Hints:
By secondary structure, the protein is α/β, with parallel strands linked by helices. Helix content is 60%, strand content 8%. The chain has three domains: 3-336, P-loop containing nucleotide triphosphate hydrolases (Rossmann fold); 367-426 and 458-532 and 559-620, Four Helix Bundle (Hemerythrin (Met), subunit A); 622-652.
Amino acid sequence: MSHHYSQRISHHRGAAGELQSSDMSLSSSSKGKSSGLNQHYEEKVRPCIDLVDSLRSLGVEKDLNLPAIAVIGDQSSGKSSVLEALSGVALPRGIGIVTRCPLVLKLKKLSKDKNGHQWHGLLSYDKQTKKLKDPSEIEDAVLHAQIVLAGKGEGISHEMITLEIQSSDVPDLTLIDLPGIARVATGNQPKDIEKQIKDLIEKFIKKQETISLVVVPANMDIATTEALQMASKVDLTGQRTLGILTKPDLVDKGMEDTVIRTVNNQVIPLKKGYMIVKCRGQQDINDKLDLVKALEKERRFFAEHSHFRSLLEEGKATIPLLAERLTKELVEHITKTLPQLQKQLEKKLEKTTEDLRALGDGVPTDEQEKNNFLITKIRQLNDAIEGVKRAEEDLKYSDKRVFTKIREEFANWKLVLDTKSIKTEETLRDEVQEYVRTRRGKELPGFVNYRTFENIVKKHIGELEAPALKLLKDVTEIVHSCVDRIVNSHFNAFPHLLRAAKDPIEDFVNEQFQRAEEKIQSQFKMERIVYAQDSLYSHQLKNVKLKSSKDCGLSLQFASADVREMAHHLTSYLTITCNRLANQVPLIVQYHMLDQYISQIQNAMLAMIGGNNPEMLLREDSGVAGKRKDLKERLERLKSAGKVLSKFVYSA
C-alpha cells in the first residue's frame, strides 16, 4: 500500500481493534514489525489474488465461476469515485451510462524503486493489449475499448475489458466494475437498457463465487436502491454482500444517526456489514484535487465530523481501511472457494474431453488418409450397430439396451397369448352352447360337429393377428430409432455422409418390415389349418381333463357331457397354438427387424467405401469445425488452469 494507505491503517488500528484476521494486516506500528508483516503478506495474500488473476487471464471465466468482487450501484451512486480512489487513477466519468462493459480492475502493489514511485498500466480487450505509460492515458483508452466492444452511443456489451495497474500506491486487489443501473432510457440508449444492465449484473452476482460490493449514496434511503435489491434477491442472507456508503458530505442535518445505524448494520443487516467513504466530488475534480490529497481530505472529514468520527474510530470509514477490508475479504473468499473451483475444473475438463472425443480429430487432407478415415468411420458405425444386433451395444445411445426393450415387448405378447389360452372351460362352454343353439344341424343331442370346433378355434386365433402385427410395429420403432441415433452420432459432423447413409436405412426398414409382416400374416393363414401332433395333443388334453376334474365349479358339472368335452378340446388346442405363436412371431420379428435389417445396413455402409467420392462424403459441417476449434481452445485453457491451480494447491 502507499504511504497514505499505511499511515491511515496504522493510525486507526488501535482505535478499531485488530481486524478479524491479523495475518492479513497491511500495516504496522514499527519498522521491524512492518517487515515481518509485509513478508507474510507477500507469502499468503499476493499468491491468492495472483492465482485468480492468472486463471482469469487464461480466459477460463468463460468456463468456470472464479472468485471475484463485483462492484454494483445505481447511476450516480459514486461507484466510479470509489474505484478511482482505490486505483489511484481517473476512470471515465460523465452523465448516463459511463461503464458500458464489465471492467476487470487488477491492482498490483509494487515495491518502491530507488527513484520512488513505480507505475505500469496494461489494457486488454478483444484479444488486443495496449501498454499505458501514464495514468492520464487510462480514461481515453477505456472509452475507446468500450466503443470497440459496445459500439458508439450508450449501449452495453458483456465482453470484458481488463485494466491492470501495477504501482507502489495501490493495494493488491482485483475488482469487476459493472454498469450503473439505469431506470429510464435516455438519449440514444436502447429502450430496454434497464433490463440489459440488470441481466448483465445478475449474470455476475448470482454466482456463489462472487462478493457483491454495493455502492449506495449515504443521502438516499438505502432500502429503495436497485443495486441492494438486486444483491438481496440473489443473496437472501446477505453473506456475499458488502455495502459501501458514499457522499457522506451530502447527508441532510438530522439524518446522521440513520447513516450511523446503517453502517453499524442496524437498518438492512448484511453478514459482511457496511463501510463508508468520501471520495472526490465534482468540485474536487474541477479544482484538480489529486487522489493523494483527496485521501487526506477524506481523513480530515471523518476525523472532524461530530457524528461520523465514531465510524472512523471503529475502522468502518475511509478508502484505506476499505482497501484493506476488500483485500482481506477477497483472499478469504478465494481460499474458501478453492476446493469447489478444483471440482468445477475437473468436471469441465472431463466433459470437454468427452465432447472433443465425440467430434473426433477432423478430416485429414491427404487423399489416402482421407480414404482410411472414411473406412474407419464406417467400421466404427458397423461395430456400433453390430453391438445392437448382439445385444451388446454401448448404453450411451440409450437408457436401455435395444434387446431389453424388445424382450419387454415379447413378454407383453406372451401375456396376450396367456390371456387367450387360459380362457376357462366355463367360458368356452358358453360359446359352445351358443354355437349349438344357433347352428345345430340334424345331429342328435350329444353330438357336437367337428366343424364347430374348427370355427371356434379359428375365431380365437384370428383375434391374435392384430396384436402380433402391433408387436412387429413396436419392435421396428425401437430398433429403427436406436439405429438412427447411432448413425447421427457417428456421421453428424458430415452432412453428405449422413444423407448417403440415411437413404438406404429408410429403404431397408420398410423392406424388412414388409417381409416380416407378410410372414406373420402367412403364419396366421397357416394357423387356420387346425393341426397338432397326435401325441402332443393327447398329452395336453389329458392334462386339461385332469385339471378340470379337480377345479371345475358346479355350473360346469351340470353342463352336458358333449359341451364339457368340447370345452376341454378347445382349451387343449388353444394352449398348443398359443405356445407355438409365443415363439414363432418373436422369431419372425427378430430375424427381419434385427438380424436382416442391421446386416443390410452394414453391407450398404461397406459398399460406400470406394463407391463414392470421399471428398464429398467427408465434407465437414462448418458448425462442427467451429465447435471443435472452441472445444480445443477450452481444453487448452482448462489444462493450463489445472496446472496453475495444482501448483498453488500443492504449494499451499
